[in-house]
Amino acid sequence: MSTPESINWPAPAKLNLFLHINGRRDDGYHELQTLFIFLDHCDWLRFHINNSNQIDIRPDLADVPLEQNLIYRAAMLLKQHSSQPLGVTIELDKRLPMGGGIGGGSSDAATTLVALNHLWEINLSVDELAELGRQLGADVPVFVRGHAAFAEGVGERLQPVEAPQKWYLVLVPECHVSTAEIFRHQDLKRDTPKQSWNELAQGNWHNDCEPLVKKNYPEVEKALRWLIEYAPSRMTGTGACVFAEFEHEHEAREVLARMPTWLQGFVARGENVSPLYVTLQQVYARND
Length: 288
Ligand SMILES: C[C@](O)(CO)[C@H](O)COP(=O)(O)OP(=O)(O)OC[C@H]1O[C@@H](n2ccc(N)nc2=O)[C@H](O)[C@@H]1O
Ligand SMILES: Nc1ncnc2c1ncn2[C@@H]1O[C@H](COP(=O)(O)OP(=O)(O)OP(=O)(O)O)[C@@H](O)[C@H]1O
Prior knowledge:
This protein is α+β, with helices and mostly antiparallel strands. It is built from 10 helices and 10 strands. The active site is at residues 14, 139.
C-alpha cells in the first residue's frame, strides 16, 4: 500500500490562452481579462511531514532564498492555522521553467497549500485556501481551485469554463521575464476594451504583453517567428514561453521534431481539471 510519503503531488503549468489588459488601477495593479487552462506538464512535490516545527525544501532553488520560495511561504501561511508544532520536508522536482509565464511558482504554492491542508489535517475549505493563495500571488487561486477559468478584475474573479481539449507545443526561450517589470513598463498596451465572456468565447484572442516582450527580449521574438510558420502562436502570461495549439498530439510532436537546436520546448495536453485535483481525489479514495 502507498503511504502519504510516497505520493508525488503534481504542480501543473498553466497557459493564458489570451491576456487582455483593460486598464490600470490607482494601486498600480492592472484590470485584465484572461483565460487559464492547465497543462499535463508539472513540477512534482513530495511531502514528509513531522513535528519539528520546521519547513525544509530539498533541493534549494537556485537564486531563490528559502524565505522567498513560494513553497515555503505557502507552508508558513498554512501553519498559522494550527497550534501544533507542524513540520515538513518537501522534495521538489522542478521541471517548469522559472519566469516562463506558465506559473510554476504559483502552482508550487497552490500544491503545497492543498497537499499540506490534507496531510497536516488542517481542513480549510477551498475558498479559505484560495484566499491564502491570493496573498501569495495573483495566479495562485486558480491553481488552488483547479478548474480552467475565465479571470477578470486583477485576476481574482474566476468563472470556471470548459475549454475545448487541445494539444500544445510550448517553446521555452532562454530568458526570464519579470512580471513586475512588464506591468511597470510605460509602453505596455493597457486599453483593450472589456468584453463579455460570451463575446470572448467567439475567439479574436491576443496577449497585450506580447508586443512589448518581443521588443525587449529578442529570444521571445525569435521563438515566435519560428513557431508561427507552423501554426497560429501566442505568448502566455508575461512571457517568456510561447505556444501553438493543435487538434492532435502527433501534429504537435511533428513540429517539435523539427525544432532547431537553439530552441527548447515540450508538448503537453490542455486540461480543464488540474492534475492536482485528480491526485487529491485519488488520495481521498484511498482513505475511504
Ligand atoms: C499576468 C499573469 O501571469 C496572468 O496569469 C498574472 O496575473 C500575474 O500573476 P503573478 O505572477 O501571480 O503576479 P503577482 O506575483 O501577484 O504580481 C507580480 C507583479 O505583477 C503586477 N500585476 C500583477 C497582476 C495584475 N493584475 N496587475 C499587475 O500589475 C504587479 O506589479 C505585481 O507586482
Ligand atoms: N517555487 C518556486 N518556483 C519558481 N519560482 C519561484 C518559486 N518561489 C519563488 N519563485 C520566484 O518567482 C519568480 C517567478 O516564478 P514563476 O516560475 O512562477 O514565473 P512565471 O511562470 O513567469 O509566473 P507567472 O506566469 O505567474 O507570472 C521566479 O523568478 C522566482 O524568483
